[in-house]
Specification:
There is one protein chain. With 295 residues, the chain is α/β, with parallel strands linked by helices. It has one domain: Vaccinia Virus protein VP39 (Rossmann fold), CATH 3.40.50. Helix content is 37%, strand content 18%. It has a nine-stranded mixed sheet, sandwiched between helices.
Length: 295
């Protein structure tokens, strides 16, 4: 197990957030409201194995990361203040960039389902499925969907190797997932997205602005994020293009976030890649990528 790091959040922000901003009584009431092991068993799949990069690391200064119950209970109250300027606005930035009207949607690494719920609200007639490795996170996500009276299917699965059929989705999304995986895993996940999408289907990835993270070191030190520096050094554009996607574009969102969009092209179609600007201003630069396409 990884050694816990002394992050900027733990040193300066955690005391204020935990004592002033978070309703500890409400968290305790929620914790005591259910048998978490029994609820988690509703989502645990016996064939799912936890990758070492996931199970051996601490995330957000929580020992055991997302497999720890406290991560699921505290995620929403903390994330509410950890995605400036406003969590709902940031997540809505992904929704606003969907260009089609999908009939079947898969949300990868859905966590507590915050983006998944927005997807269902935006496309009420679509079948929406959220997958995650952490059973407790899925319990919280399912609770939120039920309270919102939204019909969403949540299931435990590894985004690198799902059991869904080829070309069985019109839209695949991931929010705040890639900075928590090694780059080679992110690339594997995008190849899985390509397999899962029908021709013309869209993939959208919401995460930290890689250009901003490279230029502002302290942004990578706020939380305990074991893979964020490797994520910042990479390019979702390049990973997506290498997976076979066309019309790839990354747009800066509120300066420190980004949304990358791609489309599964018809076999043999020329693919274009639109790269984000080096400066996190939201402006764009165009580049044509004449690369071999996949079927």
């Amino acid at each position: 197990m990884a050694v816990r790091k002394d992050t900027l959040f733990e040193r300066f922000l955690a005391p204020f957030v935990k004592t002033v901003l978070i309703d500890r009584d409400a968290l305790m009431q929620y914790y005591q409201s259910k048998d978490w092991e029994q609820e988690g068993d509703r989502f645990r799949q016996p064939h799912v194995e936890y990758p070492d990069y996931y199970s051996s690391q601490n995330f957000h200064s929580i020992e055991g990361g997302y497999l720890n119950l406290s991560a699921a209970i505290s995620y929403d109250p903390i994330t509410k203040y950890a995605l400036p300027p406003n969590e709902d606005w940031v997540r809505q930035g992904l929704i606003d960039r969907i260009q089609t009207k999908p009939r079947r949607i898969l949300d990868l690494g859905c966590g507590t389902g915050s983006t998944t719920l927005l997807l269902k609200q935006a496309f009420p007639d679509a079948e929406v499925i959220g997958i995650d490795l952490a059973p407790y996170m899925l319990v919280v996500a399912d609770d939120k969907a039920r309270r919102a009276n939204l019909n969403i299917q949540f299931t435990q699965a590894n985004a690198e190797r799902t059991s869904f059929l080829d070309a069985s989705f019109d839209l695949v999304t991931a929010s705040l997932l890639f900075h928590e995986t090694p780059p080679e895993v992110a690339s594997t996940i995008l190849r899985e997205c390509f397999r899962l999408l029908s021709v013309g289907g869209e993939v959208l990835i919401l995460d930290g602005n890689q250009a901003a993270l490279r230029q502002t070191d302290w942004l990578t030190e706020i939380f305990e994020e074991p893979y964020i520096k490797a994520y910042a050094a990479g390019s979702v554009d390049a990973w997506m293009g290498a997976a076979g996607f066309g019309a790839v574009i990354t747009e800066a969102l509120w300066l420190i976030h980004q949304v990358t969009h791609g489309v599964k092209p018809i076999s043999g179609q020329v693919r274009t890649v639109e790269f984000a600007t080096p400066e996190p201003t939201g402006d764009r630069q165009w580049a044509l990528g004449y690369m071999p396409t996949e079927g």
